[in-house]
Predict the structure.
Amino acid sequence: MAKRVLIRALKRHRHYTYDEAADALGVTVQTVRSWRAQGLPVMTEKRPHLMLGEDLAAFHKRRNKPPNKPAKDRFRCFRCRDNTRPLDGIVFYTSLTPKRGQLEAVCGVCGNPCFRFASEAGLADLSTIFEIVRNGPSQA
């Protein structure tokens, strides 16, 4: 499991070596070096190589950006890794609680099942977009 990096431990106006950045963030030196290959700006004109605290913070802000939420007419397909429309516009709704349920559809691109949660109140809005088939309550 990935470690959570403590960005608040950085001083934005300070220069860091690989060792200092690793100590401040609680990761290994090799991890900081691998970030360079992933686009972390490093000043390499002189040795030791230095990086700005501000650049480290900005790099992690870009890197840990939350994924985009799919539009109402789309589902997140984990196989395609994209927001796709359901096959034939058919969606299955399973009630989990009296107010909330799970929508399941077949990806229109790869045929893999896609899921998302929806409120009971929001089904009326979604029924204008999809053909919704209600399933019985979940046994979990």
Notes: The longest strand covers residues 86-95. Residues 94 and 136 are 6 Å apart (CA to CA).
